[in-house]
UniProtKB/TrEMBL annotation, chains A, B:
This is Proline--tRNA ligase. GO terms for biological process: prolyl-tRNA aminoacylation. One of its GO terms (molecular function) is proline-tRNA ligase activity. Gene3D superfamilies: Anticodon-binding domain, Bira Bifunctional Protein, Domain 2, C-terminal domain of ProRS. The lineage of its organism: Bacteria, Pseudomonadati, Bacteroidota, Flavobacteriia, Flavobacteriales. Homodimer.
């Protein structure tokens, strides 16, 4: 555990890459673009999964599991879908290895070539809608509300831990409905669930909005998204929910008999969040000393470090600590008592700062004599001395207060980084010098959107759900516009 | 939902295949050998996962995630390991699709060939030990106790839902230790955890034992297993735990500095159970009417079916039911109140029998008048009338009693199907006419084991952990033997 973390102000990108590895969240593997998620990082992901899974089930969804492999012909059935994913597909072509006849080693057996290549799923719409065809005959079979926790593969050329990896973990919801309205409502509901998860669990403020045609999911009619802002002023898409219309029902011939006895095409949605959220979590809250974790997702919420000389002092502290640990655990607080004698307290302090443990208690001989603890909170780095009989209440207060405080800090930053501009020069100036979201008029054409992207690297992150009608002119073309949209450079 | 289930006595194998599909557990997908696990089946798997995950964590293990892909060269590093898996590997050779130049459709882009082929993991020892090399320097870094929940692929030619599929879900534990004794103790501990899970949660009695050299995991020094017995007299391996010695440490050069300052090779274990357990669960308890599920793993523990004419009666019943549902849920009982008016009670009764719901309550006008419920238990199909004020206690009793009863039934069957034989004729006669485990003397050689397998299809399932020393002679060769082993035909 080394504290030599690059400062955010020096090199934000390097700071992130180092922090993810040093805080034991993840590391690169020997397989290009694929990461190893280490136990500490995976424990955060498990907490995310548990909270999301509960929300999905509370809204009537069930989990299921569909195949990892997608026959090439399935992927090809929805034209814009295959166009979106063809360039980054891992393709299985053979099903056997063998010893080379010249004894030179193990080779792919040329006799074991698949008749049809299989694609490692980049997303599962095609295999799932091929299955739904068998499940849906009548309106009584609808809606189908299914979620899957799975790994997916997109062969990205430039990868970064959590943010862009060839393999990542995610959940993908796939629902089937009898009416358009119901499907649209589902897509909106899931965007709202993602927003509530991001804000209340991750403490990451997000803007809910709609993607432009260019930025939509391959195969969607409408893509809803939540967009977060990182400390370097770049946006990060944290979750998407797609209204797919009848595109996949058409491609896979999925029809149902309506109450009125007519044959109709089924309406679809899909929605997902991934281990990318880990990147958003790290980049939103952490500082130059390491991770800052929201208490709701921290694998260790409270760490207790004894400060002692010799076994007798340690034993006395351990005895004092035992009932506190028990009481906190009974209240559902995750506590670690670090009594390792192979490391000094200062080393431990630095380690738990690096790992973002929200609350640290220290207890030494003076505290033993006075019946106190030293309490340090990770978000503000403030320390205070607390009486033993007030410590449990203090911890409960701090767990809530830290959760609120880091959300508020991130929200303040975000609010201070939404800038309205009226022309292209202003746009470029803000983008270059301030960053963040830029609220500007746009003429609504993909051409303008692309020119702005090519010239500035900024993309339209979303048309906010709560956008106000406002007449204006496009910053690039001067053509009329009826509302502002949000631009930003993005991860 | 059709009840035309083949009887076990007619065709056990067909009964199983039909039941898995009709009870909505799983079905075959459009991808050869890969299954779709349907929501009802997945809900059982989730309960299995939750129970196992708790046991793993209580014994100090943490979850992590390693890449789906394994470079071919990694797989080749441990000689017996690659030999064991080479024949059934899904191989990724390309990373891009493109539109064919003649416009005929989407093809694999020949320009996007990988330099080194990637194998979709059949198991993860190689990629994990390649990672552990970076994590282990000193004895202070040991032990490493990691588990992974993941999908794996073994290209089986003949597949059956849950029992043998090209892709399956599992957990794989991979631990690293400073000493041989510690690694052996870990492998034994995990066998014991698997046995406790099988018996106390799945209600499936198992025999703990050691595999013979022939049946060992590819790369293991010793394979511990738990073996269950299905109702057709065939055995099913329900979990394995491997002591891997220093084989993978050697192959991946993983050494540590001991307390004494010496460089030593690390000791390893790995252990896993998979969705195969779903097959064992179905085949152990179910009957000609459908699934029989142990209450601890049943997604719905209690179903309540109203029997009514008209909305007024239904409303009155619903009102009567509401506080009961609430009380049961508060006690952690999973209850479904099926008030669908699109299906008749008789249809619903058959459906929940098929799906193995442990307890069914029915309530009609007479019950309303008398303040009673009709209670039916799925395992014995017994019905009785219970007073409303005794219903909660009755349900709590039944949930425990059904769990115990189906275990006892399976245990009785198993105990009645372990037969000691003294010669090869007896062996073949029992195998043919009675089935089950056959306890017999064997001369300890792979040659004898193989001859018996070729001649009878029976394999040595295990050398039981609690085997008694007993001098005897091999049933095939007449050579001396020091203890009996268990043979059976197996899944
Ligand atoms: Zn919440
Ligand atoms: Zn248990």
């Amino acid at each position: 555990m080394s504290k030599n973390l690059t400062k955010r102000s020096e090199d934000y990108s390097k700071w992130y890459n180092e922090l993810v590895v040093k805080a034991d969240l993840a590391e690169n593997s020997g397989v290009r673009g694929c990461m190893v998620i280490k136990p500490y990082g995976y424990a955060i992901w498990e907490k995310m999964q548990a909270a999301l899974d509960t929300m999905f089930k509370e809204t009537g969804h069930e989990n299921a599991y569909f195949p990892l492999f997608i026959p090439k012909s399935y992927l090809s059935k929805e034209a814009s879908h295959v166009e979106g994913f063809a360039k980054e597909c891992a393709v299985v072509t053979h099903y056997r290895l063998k010893m080379a006849e010249d004894g030179s080693g193990i080779i792919v057996d040329p006799d074991a070539k698949l008749e049809e290549e299989l694609i490692v799923r980049p997303t599962s719409e095609t295999i799932i809608w091929d299955t739904y065809r068998k499940w849906i005959q009548s309106y009584r079979d609808l809606p189908i509300l299914i979620n899957q926790w799975a790994n997916v593969v997109r062969w990205e050329m430039r990868t970064r831990l959590f943010l862009r990896t060839a393999e990542f973990l995610w959940q993908e919801g796939h629902t089937a409905h009898a009416t358009k309205n119901e499907a649209v409502a589902e897509a909106e509901q899931m965007m709202n669930i993602y927003a509530e998860f991001a804000e209340n669990h991750m403490a990451v403020p997000v803007i809910k909005g709609l993607k432009t045609e260019t930025e939509r999911f391959a195969g969607a009619i409408e893509t809803y998204c939540i967009e977060a802002l990182m400390q370097d002023g770049k946006a990060l898409q944290a979750g998407t929910s797609h209204f797919l219309g009848q595109n996949f029902a058409k491609a896979f011939d999925v029809k149902f008999t309506s109450k009125e006895g007519k044959q109709e095409l089924v309406w679809a949605t899909s929605w997902g969040v991934s281990t990318r959220l880990m990147g958003a979590l790290v980049m939103t809250h952490s500082d130059d000393k390491g991770l800052v974790l929201p208490p709701k997702l921290a694998p260790i919420q409270v760490v207790i470090v004894p400060i002692y000389k010799g076994d007798d002092q340690l034993d006395a502290i351990s005895e004092r600590i035992a009932p506190l640990v028990k009481e906190l655990r009974a209240k559902g607080v995750s506590v670690k008592y670090d009594n390792r004698d192979t490391y000094k307290p200062g080393f431990k302090f630095a380690e738990y700062e690096l790992k973002g443990v929200p609350i640290r208690l220290a207890i030494g001989q003076r505290d033993m004599d006075n019946g106190t603890f030293e309490v340090a909170r990770r978000d503000t780095l403030e320390k205070e001395t607390v009486q033993a009989d007030e410590i449990v209440a203090k911890i409960e207060f701090l767990l809530e207060d830290i959760q609120k405080n880091i959300f508020k800090k991130a929200l303040d930053y975000r609010e201070n980084h939404i800038t309205e501009v009226e022309n292209y020069d202003e746009f470029k100036e803000i983008l270059e010098n301030k960053g963040g979201f830029i609220s500007a008029h746009w003429d609504g054409t993909p051409e303008t959107e692309e020119r702005i992207k090519n010239e500035t690297k900024a993309t339209i992150r979303c048309i906010p759900i709560d956008v106000k009608p406002e007449n204006g002119v496009c910053i690039l073309t001067g053509k009329p516009s009826k509302n502002r949209v949000l631009f930003a450079k993005a991860y």
